[in-house]
Amino acid sequence: MISYTVYKVVHYTGVFLLMVALSATLARAAALWRDSEESVDPWARRLIAAHGTALFLILLGGFGMLARLDVTEGLALPSWIWAKLGIWVILGGFVAARRSPRLATPALLLVPVLAALAGWIALYKPF
Ligand code: HEM
Asked: Residue ranges per domain, the chain?
């Protein structure tokens, strides 16, 4: 049986990979938009693949830990998990901000804020 700690390492690996992939994607897009009329990033395909892998690892580790924490009743998820899933969807969608010169930089600045909020929700489970 995979332990809670192993799932947490998988979860952290996903979070760190997401921070790297998303920040690189958005920072490069912001720089490319600044220097030219279009933003064709030769790294885009690799960064999108890393972004997708990160989102998968976060879910795998998160639901694995959830199973070991034994806080779910049947299929009902605790509301703090729904909040984290909301943050996961938002950070997942942030990759689309690379297509807009106006959105790339604000999204980049919001990434660590939302990630810290997800960590805080996991630690304090405020609802
Ligand atoms: C991108 C979004 C997410 C980020 C940045 C994130 C971040 C974190 C962090 C930093 C912790 C560690 C807290 C500690 O040290 O105890 C954590 C714990 C946890 N996360 Fe996430 N998480 C995210 C999404 C999710 C999702 C979608 C789930 C859904 C299954 C999830 C489920 C959990 C669980 C179950 C824990 C352990 C809580 C505990 O031990 O009491 N997380 N998360």
From this structure: 4-124
